Amino acid sequence: MDTLIQRDPFASGFSFNDFPRLDGTGHDPSDPTLGGVGTRYRQLNPIDYADGLFAPAGETRPGAREISNRLMSQTTSIPDPRGLTAMSWIFGQFLNHDIDDARLGTIPFPIEVPPDDPQINNPAFVAQLGRFTRNAIDPDTGPPFNATPAAQINQATSWVDASVVYGTSEERSNAIRSFTGGRLDTSPGNLAPLDDTNLPNATVPFIPKEEFFLFGDVRGNQQLGLMAMQTVWLREHNYWADKLAEAHPDWTDEQLFQRARAIVIAEFQAVSYNEYLPAILGVENVEAYDGFDSTAVAQTSLTFATGAFRVPHSAVNETFALVTEDGTVTGEVSLFDGSFDPFFFRQGPDLVESVLRGAATTVREKNDPKYVNGLRNSFSDLGAEDIQRGRDHGLPTYNVLRNVLDRLQPTGRPFPEFTSFSQLTSDPEVIVALQDLYGDINNIDMITGMLAEELPVDQFGQATSSVGEVTGEILRLTFQRLRDGDPFYYQNPIETGGIFTDAEIQELNGTTLADIIRRTSGISNIADNVFVTDTLPLPDPNPSAIGANDFMAGADSMLLG
Questions:
Q1: Measured between alpha carbons, how far is residue 155 from residues 137, 467, 552 in Å?
Q2: Fewer CB atoms near the end CB (10 Å): N or C, the chain?
């Protein structure tokens, strides 16, 4: 920590242009727009539009809500078998918002509600599913004026760069800065500022916009866990700004802001790669970092954004537990009641802390085809939306993706196509449901197959990962590319174009989310690894030296994006 504070990078010639840009451009000199805001999602597989250009996939498959009702209904808790905590899905959503934001378009693509649906007499619910629209596309793609398949646009950066904290434009960044001491702006209670701007912000119509918080990401108010996570990282920025101001009284506000931002980006990367991904992926994690690779294509793909990184939706808990410093559970808030509630954290002190303690001690749901009722039957149906969005994007079937992975074998691992539903899952109820719905293993939507995958197990039958094999492979490939192709990744030293010295990198290697929570809140009684319970053995989450051999071998729902 002392090295990060005391060194003056500006004295050695660093300028503001040497820090990552807000909009994600400029990382690759040969392609300055790569990974920047407004670029296309990458396709890792054949596009499966019904007409080859734009018509949604799955025209012969059952409706998304029908599949959800038959396959995804969950009435009791199904805990993650490896003991991952709710903090893991909350941080996962936070990370997702950092690298994925496919904005809604205007073309209707309603989710049909079957006549015998249990919610058929709920007009608000039926209307919400009926309002589903297709995502906006690059105007240079798709019919009627282009013969190239439609390509969706990512309004986030593809880099793991904490843009979810700082925004992706100068306008939004300036709106959340205080311009004093390098700090981000706050409101009473050390919370985020309230929204007095005309900037986009995801809200609900029955609460005035100015009552909501203004975060770096437009989706920050979606639910209590996400609001708490946004608040933690806002406070962490100000922690560093204050420390730097004390050590460098001659620095300008801009210098303090940029250096604090660079440190927070590095911490965000450290938590993502050294804690979160090992917890989710288990023993088959991202390969060890071996330095910057200019050939790595650091670009978010639809297979990842609309497929693999939506699988954790099934891990979301039904409620947020409220826990005191001594471990007492004082209550709980339902997922629905905790959504778009800008008043909750303003009711009194310690409420951010209560939610964080609960998230760090509650076991999350298992990744499987089941979604909790709060996601499926309250405001909308996120399971149906996940299926519908995959069809909107022309994603191919699950078996086609297996074929592509088997043909390419990017990690040397075979992925033969399945010939029966029993190869996908051993759950007899799921097998029957898939057979009745799809009829043929080759017809399954990509997201449905990913959700139904068996979790990998060891020789004792214990799960070694919290996601299935195809999901895990896509997550590994994507996060490895985003890391290796980023010259600003924190472990890339100054000598090869990075920002930090070897000594600073070693300091950052040891950073955990628990460290950040402790110094930005009133919490001291919290596990050192907040992503797992004490029952889950994991390798050391801190990475070894660069090159060493270690263990690392767009918002649809109003609740979650």
A1: 11, 27, 30
A2: N
Quickly count: other Cβ atoms within 10 Å of residue 214's Cβ. 23
* Region of residue 181 (left: phi > 0; alpha: psi -120 to 50; beta: else): left
Cα–Cα distance measured from residue 78 to residue 227, given in angstroms and rounded to the nearest whole number: 25
pLDDT one-digit tens code per residue, 169-207: 999 999 999 999 999 999 999 999 999 999 999 999 999
Other Cβ atoms less than 10 A from the Cβ of 287: the count is: 14
First and final CA of the chain: distance in angstroms? 34
Q: For residues 160 and 508, what is the distance between their CA atoms, to the nearest angstrom?
A: 15
User: Over 498-541, what HEC string results?
Assistant: CCECHHHHHHHHCCCHHHHHHHHCCCCCCCCCCCECCCCCCCCC
What number is the average pLDDT over the span 89-116?
A: 97
DSSP state string for 83-136: -BBHHHHHHHHHHHHHH--B-EEEEE---PPPTT-TTTT-HHHHHHHHT-EEEP
The verdict on whether omega for the bond into residue 144 sits within 30 degrees of 0, i.e. cis, is yes
Structure tokens at 560: 């979650």
Q: Which amino acid is at 129?
A: L
544 pLDDT higher than 60: no
Judge contact between 269 and 516, C-beta under 8 A. no
Name beta bridge partners: 132: none
Tokens found for residue 466: 């919290």
Confidence of residue 546 (pLDDT cuts 50, 70, 90): very low
Short-list 284, 283, 291, 359, CA closest to 321: 359
Average pLDDT, the chain: 93
Question: Which of the four pLDDT bands, split at 50, 70 and 90, describes residue 46?
Answer: confident
| Residue whose structure tokens are 């297996």 | 402
Distance CA(129)–CA(131), nearest Å, equals 5
pTM of the full structure? 0.94
Q: What is the arithmetic mean of pLDDT over 290-311? A: 95
Helix (H) or strand (E) holding 421: helix 421-424
Q: Where are the domains of the chain?
A: 2-184+241-520
In this predicted model, what pLDDT tens digit does every residue of 327-378 receive, in sequence order? 999 999 999 999 999 999 999 899 999 999 999 999 999 999 999 999 999 9
pLDDT higher than 60, residue 555: no
Distance CA 95, CA 370 (A): 22
- The neighbouring-strand residues paired with 445 are 397
Other Cβ atoms closer than 10 A to 559:
22
CATH superfamily entry for domain 2-184+241-520 = Haem peroxidase domain superfamily, animal type (1.10.640.10)
169, with CB counted inside 10 A (0-12, 13-18, 19+), is: middle
User: Which segment of 120-134, 278-292, 422-436, 534-548 scores lowest on mean pLDDT?
Assistant: 534-548
pLDDT of res. 341: 97
Output the six-digit token pair for 337: 């009641």
